[in-house]
Structures are given as structure tokens and as C-alpha cells.
Amino acid sequence: xxxxxxxxxxxxxxxxxxxxxxxxxxxxxxxxxxxxxxxxxxxxxxxxxxxxxxxxxxxxxxxxxxxxxxxxxxxxxxxxxxxxxxxxxxxxxxxxxxxxxxxxxxxxxxxxxxxxxxxxxxxxxxxxxxxxxxxxxxxxxxxxxxxxxxxxxxxxxxxxxxxxxxxxxxxxxxxxxxxxxxxxxxxxxxxxxxxxx
Amino acid sequence: xxxxxxxxxxxxxxxxxxxxxxxxxxxxxxxxxxxxxxxxxxxxxxxxxxxxxxxxxxxxxxxxxxxxxxxxxxxxxxxxxxxxxxxxxxxxxxxxxxxxxxxxxxxxxxxxxxxxxxxxxxxxxxxxxxxxxxxxxxxxxxxxxxxxxxxxxxxxxxxxxxxxxxxxxxxxxxxxxxxxxxxxxxxxxxxxxxxxx
DNA sequence: CCGCCTGCCTAGGGGCCCTAGGTTTTTCCT
DNA sequence: AGGAAAAACCTAGGGCCCCTAGGCAGGCGG
Lengths: 197, 197
Fold this sequence. Notes:
homodimer; 197 residues; mainly alpha; Tetracycline Repressor, domain 2; 9 helices; DNA-binding
């Protein structure tokens, strides 16, 4: 019997593709094996198990998403950067729903594996870089980053869950949300007196 | 053998409790049955299957969350209402992680079942009511509602996924995010010329 | 050329979802 | 109150899934 030539990476990609096509929930050892023309037991040479595979898909997706954002925002600043950043984020979620979902699962990733991934640090740098033009200083910078990430993620998550039912298209609301966030970043409120920093 | 006295509601609650304790993924027919002291096949009298159960948990949770928010915001307006609304939302997510997760799963709920639920309409009313004081008109109102929901949901989702790693506590960022959103609602940007409404 | 690591295999146990059909308990009608 | 009908719970079993154990063969290093 000829060998299938599997590697950890090929198994991960097969799982990620499957996730995009049929949903992350349906990504199963058996299905991935079937797609690769192999018996399910054979995957355990390359991947520790289903949890491990899911973690690897999440890391793969996070890296891809960060790369897309980096490409989209290079050379931009201010509102242009904000819009490019957010749009690249949303489009990645649309184009790769299964992969995107994988990135949002509670952290069960092998710490050692995660440590090898360059994605997270790069993502943080990108986000802070995008905000450079707004003149925020810590701790406002961190708070602004968290607010933006929350909004971007929340929007695409609600969109995917069918949360924006009728009438007005999500696209219009998205555009206006970015207008609003840009305005907000330009008028970031000072701390109320008495409020802890 | 004495009867266990199951009902659809009791099964749903058992599932919801289990979800909060061990995670929605672990909510399984067998586990729910075990918790109720019953064989798994017995549940099918009360619930159509796992999908159906998940949908019912989602509806239960959505109703509970809406109720909490309603109680928290009654009689309040302006920033007080915003903070109470958002905090009730976040606290529900903290106290009932499994239930909350159920509300965010892509829509696979039996439409007939969903139609009977009073939750969604009530939730919409609450949100629009909270914004009344800010003097927004459609379509800005809808866009603002969507932005707020996105941010609230995104924040708790990232928090749950371990997205706010170190250093600054999520609580501080949360407080500041609400400050920022309040400011934003008071200075909602007008449409750029040429931008479609 | 040959041993040997390693990729892929078969075999099998245990868990889960769900259906079919039986039995016992409760309800309700007369 | 008695009995039929309905409903609640059961056992049995098929199919899919995760994962482990152990075997065989293909392609590399000596």
C-alpha cells in the first residue's frame, strides 16, 4: 500500500478546510481521515487527538487572519487603517467561518504548541500600531484595543449567529459602526474623577 | 419502578445546569439522563433530540438574561441605564457560562418553538428603550443597538476565551469601555456626505 | 544489500445518539 | 370503582465516533 504522505500540517489543513465547509462541530477524526483517504487511526501519528487538532486549526486560523490584516493595513494610518483592519477581520470570518470559529473557542491549546506560534504577538503589534495615530497613552491604549477587538469579534459572531435579523443590512451597520469607532477614538473620554485608573 | 416526573422544562433545566458546570459541549443526552436518574432513551419523550435540547437551553438562557437586564435597568436612563444593562449582560455570562454560550450558537432552533418565546421581542424593546435618552433616530438607532450588542457580546466572549491575558484587569477595561460607549452615543457621528444611509 | 524506523493498517473497547417495541404507571371516562 | 387508553420509562440494538494496541510493509542509513 502506497503511503499517503501525511504530515501534521496536512492533517491540520484538511481539518480546517472541513471546518469551513461543514462547521467546526462536524470536524471529526473520522471525517478528516476520510477526506485524506486514510483510516482514522492513522491520524494519531500526526496529531494527538481531536482536541489537539482543534487547537492546531485555531492556531493556523489565527495566523492566517493576522497575516490578512497585516497585508490590508500596511502603509495606512488613522481611519483608513481602522477600516482596513476591521474589514480584513470581518472578511476572514466570512470566508473561513469554521477556521474563525476555531479561534474563538476557550483556550485548551497545548501551551507548548502555542508558544511556538508567532501569531499572537504579531496581532497585538498590529492592533497597537493601528491606534498609533490616535494619540492614546496607556492604559487607555489597552482599553481601546480591547474595545475594538470586542466589537469586531462581537459583530461577526452575532452576524454568524443570525443576530441581525432583518431590514437593515449588516454591511450598512458595519460601516456606521466603524464611523462611530473612529469618532470615539478621536474623542476618547478622560477618566472621571474618583474613578480608578 | 417509580416515575421520575420528568417534563420538557425539567430536562431543559438539567441540561442548562450541566452546561454551566461542565460546558455546553459536554451536554450530552447520556449525561443529562444520568443527572436525572434516568436512561438516555427516556429523554426522547420530552425532547426531540440533542439539537432540540440545545435550542431549548438557548431559549431558556435568552429569556433569563433578558429578565435580568429588565430588572437591572428598570427606572434608569442615560448612562445609568447603559451601565446597568451592560453589567447585567456581562454578569449573566459570568454566572451562567454554559447557558450564555448556548445563546450564541448559530440558529438551529425550531422556528415554531422560537416563535412561542417572548424573549427576543422583549430584548429588542429593552435595548431601544435604553437608548431613548440619547436622542438617536433611525437608522442610527438600529446601528447603535447593533454596535452595543456586538461590543457587549464580544467582550464577554473574548473574556471567556482568555483573550484578555494579563496585566490590566478586564473589569477596568470594561468600565472604561462603557465610559467610551456613553461618550460615543452622545456624539454619534453624522453620515459622511456621499455615504449611503 | 539489509536492518529498522516509521507510516499506515486491522482489531477492538467504550461512549454517544437515536429508534423500536415492551411494560408499568397514571389518568380519565363511564 | 373498574377498566381502557395514554403516557412515562424501560431494554435492546444499530451506527458513528474517539482512541489504544499491536502488526506489516516501504523507504531510508549503514
